[in-house]
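note to self: dont lose this again. the chain is below, predicted strucutre after it. 208 aa total, dont forget to put it in the shared folder this time
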Amino acid sequence: MNAQQTIASRLPAVLVLTAGLAAALAGCERMQQDLEAFNQRLAAQFNGEDAPAATPPADGDATAEAFDRQSVPEPLHLLLPHEVRIHPFTGTRTFDEAGGVRGLDVRVEAKDAYGDMTKAFGDFRFELYAFRANSPDPKGRRLMVWRESLLDPKDNLMHWGGMVARRYQFRLQWDQPIPVGRKLVLTVTFTSPFTERLTDEHVFVSGQ
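---
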């Protein structure tokens, strides 16, 4: 086999390798662009500025984020909340020595795709219900609603329990008397421009 025949026989493999390298470089460039855009949005929120608008999804791209959602590049999306959980330490509390400030002491955990504790930037909506016995849905009459926004990094840090607890704490004030021993249902709904809507429900007894 002469030199020309050898080159011709190897040309298809070279073309496949070249195409593969070009696709890989294009993917890396796109990931770098997405990462830079994500960092800009976080920096803008920390500085109190308006974050740049998210890039609308390409036509026909089934995996693209919706326009009102901010896309998060892989693999960073795995570190975002995939689950929220109301911790069993949640219950009714008195927040001052005089007993004049009462309410719920709520502990909430956010877990990433690996099941590890993570930070949650978004809005928390808490709803308190009377307990309804002998029903598939234990939520009876709604008693109270609270909203807490943790999109701002400073507010987020204020509610964070630190490296030991690794969960959020909310002191939700309520001026209504809560009889000891009353069964209640608390729900939490977490919404964020970075993740799907997440919910959890917790049944507890006041005073315990």
